[in-house]
Amino acid sequence: MMKVIAAVVLVVVSGAGAEAGQAAMSGDLARVLTTGDVGDRHRAVRSMLLIPADQRDEAMWVAAAAELQRVAAESHARIDAINAGRSVRSLGEDHAEYDRALVEAVGQWQDPRALPPLISAGGGMLATQPILRFGETAVPLLVEAARTGHSSQRGGVLLALTILLEGYTVQPYNISPAPLSPAARRQIQQLAHDLLQPSAVRLSDLPIAAGLALATGDETLREQIEVLAREPGAVAQLTGLGDGIAIARVQSSIQTKLDRFNR
Q1: Cα separations (Å) of 258 from 150, 152, 222, 223, 251?
Q2: Residue 105: inside a domain
Q3: Of 148, 248, 161, 150, which is closest to residue 208 (Cα–Cα)?
Q4: 3-state DSSP assignment of residue 240
Q5: How far apart are CA 36 and CA 3, in angstroms?
Q6: Domain of 71?
Q7: Residues 6+ positions from 227 with CB-CB distance below 8 Å
Q8: Residue-wise DSSP of 69-122
Q9: What is residue 253's predicted lDDT score, i.e. its pLDDT?
Q10: pTM, whole model, 2 decimals?
């Protein structure tokens, strides 16, 4: 496996005949990503990033997407085990780097098949930006992930939907709102409504759910957010929790979002 990866790197930097060599080696990289050991897979995805995106073939893209989906599922299982009080083995010091490299690689795929693994991968902007590039195509998958996906996905999914509605002017991103159809906007609005029902959202996710509700522009949802910012009991009733300090913190975050929309 090491020889295959070294050959790919050599082809990428060799100049003459590089394009033909890259095409020949892409299938080898795909096989490494599918069947290689941990170290070989790590080296394979780094080698993939050296190949220009327009010179990667179907097998390579599909293998990278499948590997990202596998890594995301493994991460979800580890989170569930930790939350249940079970011990989990270390994945190694360079696993986080491998995860980021996979997200970067799959994020360069201009195909909607990249969406499920990117959505599963979590909420960092490295994954969110390529999701946003698909615009309305991403909306049904994001809404479904918000409803049925792993709890660790929800914050990132709600942020992506919010950015699709209102953009994201924070530098260096400066993302414009997406041109969404009325049907897509209704899907998002219904999701925001459903998340503001009792026990539908975790306390930690409530501020970002509130931000999504405000971004829809729906006046009824806005009134509900104003009540949550004003009345601790409303937050307790919605989340089923009674930690006054945590509720106050969440209310402060909700009020910050309201203040931004009032400007």
Answers
A1: 28, 25, 9, 10, 10
A2: yes
A3: 161
A4: coil
A5: 12
A6: 1-111
A7: 234
A8: HHHHHHHHHHHHHHHTT-------TTHHHHHHHHHHHHHT--SGGGHHHHHHH-
A9: 95
A10: 0.87
Q: What is the pLDDT of residues 107-164, one digit of tens each?
A: 999 999 999 999 999 768 999 999 999 999 999 999 999 999 998 899 999 999 999 9
What are the residue ranges in the chain where pLDDT is below 50?
A: 2-17
How distant is the alpha carbon of residue 166 from its chain centre? 18
The reply to whether 116 falls in a domain is no
Report how far Cα 55 is from the mean position of its chain's Cα atoms. 25
| 153 and 102, same domain (yes or no) | no
User: Residues 176-198, buried b or exposed e (16+ Cβ, 10 A)?
Assistant: eebebeeebbebbbebbbebbee
**Tally of domains in the chain:** 2
pLDDT of res. 65:
96
At residue 24, the pLDDT reads 52
Together in a domain, 202 and 157: yes
Q: Which residue in the block uniquely carries the two structure tokens 């995860």?
A: 99
CA distance 245 to 241: 11
What length does the chain have?
Answer: 263
